[in-house]
Amino acid sequence: MCGIIGYVGKNDAVKVLINGLKTLEYRGYDSAGIALKNKSIQVIKSVGKVSMLEDKLKTLDVIRANMGLAHTRWATHGKPSEVNAHPHVVGKVTIVHNGIIENAFELREKLEQEGVSFKTDTDTEVIAALINKYYDGDACDAIRKATDLVVGSYALGIMFDDEDYLYAIRKDSPLILGVGVDEYFMASDIAAIVNYTNKYMLLEEGEIAQISFEGINIYNSKKIVEKNILETSVVDEDKGKCGYKYYMLKEINEEPILVERAIKNFYEKIDEFPNLNDYEEIHIVACGSAMYAGMIGKTLIEENTNIQVVCEVASEYRYKRVFYNRKTLVIVISQSGETADTIAALRKAKANNIDTLAIVNVKGSTIARESKQQIYIEAGREVAVATTKAYILQVLVMALLSCKSALKLDLVKNDLEKLPRLLKEVIDRRDDYKKLAKKIFKSEDIFFIGRKIDYAISLEGSLKLKEISYIHSEAYQAGELKHGTISLIEENTPVLAIITDDDIKEKTLSNLEEVKARGALPIVICNEKIDGYQDEILLPKVSTFFQAVLVVPCLQLIAYEVAILRGCDVDKPRNLAKSVTVE
Ligand code: F6R
Question: At what angle do helices 413-427 and 544-565 cross, to 10 degrees?
Fold first, then answer.
């Protein structure tokens, strides 16, 4: 999703800003732009990758500057184009924006009636026009008057033609302030500045930061606010692809070592892990793959304890009527810790005085800061847009939590010991996945079926496949297919059946026979030999608590091989963003 970096300091602004944008690339974007300030402001934009903006800069007469703003855009209002790319300029105001303005059309209409004309389709230009309207030399006042009228979410970086300051303000979108030696920054993500400084300040909602060559002032109303300078332990962990063709493949290959480390950490901090039995009811709330990791957690908790679990998509949970009781725990799961809907769900629980636990990767993120308790999955930086290693660690944490609360840790000791090694063996079987990918990569539809935990696994397998290969795919509870969707099965439609749960193995097999009878190509992913299927991937069998940790990497790799055969950009699938900071 949109990324912002702003810089004031001793170094060449172009270099710092372009480096920052490259670090933010993983968030997903469709265009990029830069505004440089010396005596005047120069704006340069380009559709496509940051490298294309960089190439364009080389062809132009770019001013020397030590101050500027830069942005990667993920389109919300208006299609990806050079004109819609940020920064936007209206009058004396140059602006970059992350977020979404919900009343943009209304505000735009009013401004048009007042004689303002717009060059772009963006909601951002509307804020720029509002700030310009109110600006009479008092920047903070203009920014506050404009943002008071705005409904929605925003992180804004702003420059004025006649001032040597950068301004920043945010609401429901991330933005931090970096403090270096004779240089200062604003950024959507700490990773964009850690090559320059590990010191940063948090910008709270309602505060305005004024950044100059002398330092950063933060205003709340008219008063200066004293801020603590924090230090991050995040280092620029992106050491490149390390010989792998794509980050996704590198990140899948990191899973065994990360799983080993997570299990060790768990035993070292076992007493800090909450006991779910302290609660009568659990709500697990998240988006996308993180929600599917929650589905695994729900299945394991309900099968092994007496606690009832609701697992909901955050974008629904935040707006629906939710029933809490005094002994409800809300677990939010998020890799980035900045997913707008998940943050809103967390805040809803807190507003109802409900205990909250975050299972999160990024330290210092909004979700990590705002939840009552945190478990860090310690996945390191995940660059590929489609999550792999972070999902596996989310699942592992949910499994360990469930297992501890079910008092079954003693029963799984052996499995936990061998899990990293078995996982490595699963990942190393790439030839099997390539072979299977060759059979299915030309399909138009692919179905995944499973029951109970195997259904939760299917959901993630299907999402991974569709997001990176662009093949239409659906995951179904195996018994449900015949209630409608079976009409889509044609000659040779691949149906991947996940069969690892002994209790319902025979039932899923019957469902597979039903689709086979209608011409489907049946593919079995199982943990015990099943006779009669030509296309079978037999994976190691472990306790149900940890089976998903071995099955999902196989599905991640099948998706990967299919996407490669289809010539897709595996790390940056079209339309997707890594960190979804708008609702
Ligand atoms: C899919 C994927 C997304 C994320 C979702 C939540 O591969 O990565 O579905 O899982 O956008 O993101 P986080 O975990 O950052 O809250």
Answer: 10
CA–CA gap between residue 286 and residue 349 (Å, rounded):
13
Contacts of 419 (CB under 8 A, 6+ apart): 259, 260, 263, 542, 546, 549, 550
Beta bridge partners of 190: none
Atom of ligand 1 nearest to the CA of 335: 14
Tell me how far apart the alpha carbons of residues 5 and 71 are, in angstroms, rounded to a whole number. Answer: 6
Give yes or no: 140 in active site: no
Three-state DSSP class for residue 486? helix
Strands (E), 113-165: 152-160
- Give phi and psi for 74, each to the nearest 5: -115, 110
**Euclidean distance between CA atoms 35 and 55, whole angstroms:** 16
| Ligand 1 atom closest to residue 464's alpha carbon, by position in its atom list | 7
Higher per-residue confidence, 573 vs 291: 291
Nearest to 178 by CA among 206, 153, 209, 154: 209
pLDDT digits (tens, 9 = 90+) for 36-59: 999 999 999 999 989 999 999 999
Which residues does 457 contact at the CB level (< 8 Å), separation at least 6? 296, 450, 498, 500, 547, 548, 551, 552, 555
Q: Ligand 1 centre and the CA of 368: distance in Å?
A: 16
Output the furthest CA–CA distance in the chain (Å, rounded): 79
Is-catalytic flag, 2? yes
Give the mean pLDDT of the chain.
94
Q: Could you read off the pLDDT of 205-250 as tens digits, one per residue?
A: 889 999 999 999 999 977 888 888 998 766 655 667 877 899 999 9
Hey, which of 239-248, 353-362, 363-372 has the most confident mean pLDDT? 353-362
Residue 150, pLDDT score: 95
- CA–CA separation, 371 vs 391, rounded Å? 20
519 pLDDT exceeds 80? yes
| C-alpha 578 to ligand 1 mean position (Å) | 7
pLDDT tens digits for 146-172? 999 999 999 999 999 999 999 999 998
How far, in Å, CA of 313 to CA of 316, rounded? 6
Half-sphere exposure in the Cβ direction for 121 (13 Å, CA): 8
Closest CA to 17 of 59, 81, 85, 65: 65
Please name the helix (run of DSSP H) or strand (run of DSSP E) that holds residue 394, with its range, or none. Answer: helix 389-405
What is the number of other CB atoms lying within 10 angstroms of the CB of residue 470? 15
> What pLDDT was estimated at residue 237?
59
Q: From CA 334, how far away is CA 330, in angstroms rounded?
A: 13
The values of phi and psi at residue 10, to 5°, are -75, -20
Task: Please pick, among 37, 56, 227, 578, the residue that the annotation labels catalytic.
Answer: 578
State the distance from the centre of ligand 1 to the C-alpha of 195, rounded, in angstroms.
Answer: 26
Ligand 1 pocket by Cβ (under 6 Å): 287-290, 334-336, 339, 342, 386-387, 463, 467, 579-580
With pLDDT > 70 as the criterion, what percentage of the chain qualifies?
99
